Amino acid sequence: xxxxxxxxxxxxxxxxxxxxxxxxxxxxxxxxxxxxxxxxxxxxxxxxxxxxxxxxxxxxxxxxxxxxxxxxxxxxxxxxxxxxxxxxxxxxxxxxxxxxxxxxxxxxxxxxxxxxxxxxxxxxxxxxxxxxxxxxxxxxxxxxxxxxxxxxxxxxxxxxxxxxxxxxxxxxxxxxxxxxxxxxxxxxxxxxxxxxxxxxxxxxxxxxxxxxxxxxxxxxxxxxxxxxxxxxxxx
Length: 235
Hints:
Shape: globular
Helix content: 25-40%
Radius of gyration: 17 Å
Strand content: 15-25%
Largest sheet: 7 strands, mixed
Oligomer: single chain
C-alpha cells in the first residue's frame, strides 16, 4: 500500500518549492501583475490543523491550487508542516512533464480517475490505493480537493465526494474560485496580466447529522447538492 510518508529530502524539497513559488510567482503574479481578491479567509486561522478538506471548483490544472496554497502559507504565514496541506490530482496529469512532477513533490496526492483519462471518458474500477492516499492526506493535514474531477466548465460534482466526507468525517470548507481561466495564455500556461480573480472561502458545511448517521445515498446526494450550489459553474 502506497503511503504519503516523506523522507528528509522530500520535506526540504517541498519547503523549497512552496517558498520559491510564493516569492517568485504567486506574490508578483497574483498581487502585482493581476488582482486576486480573497474573501472569507479569516477562517484559515480558526481551523483545526488536521482533518480538513477544502472543496473547490476546478478551472485550471494548477493556478487555483497555487492561489489557495498562497492564501494558507504566504498570506496567513502558517507553518509549512502545520497544517501539512496537499492537493488531489489525477495521476496522468502529474506525470505529464518535469514541472508537473515537481508540483507533485510540493504536495500532490495522485489517484487514477475511474471516469476520465487523458481528456477522454473511460469507465473502470475505483483506484482504492489512490483513495487510501487521499484519506491519509485528510487525516494528517489539509487537503484541497476538486470534486468535479475535471476543469470542464459546468461539470457536475462527483457523488463520491459525499462518501469521502462521511468516511473521513472531515471539516468541509467550500472554496469558490472565479476568473482563473482568464490568466491562461495558452491551454494551462499562465501569462496574461491585468486580470481580476476571486477566491472565496465559505464557512464549513454543517455535516453533524450526516456524520452521525450511517451513510445513506439520499443524504449523500443532499450534501452534493449543497456543495454544487456553491461550486458548479453554469454550463
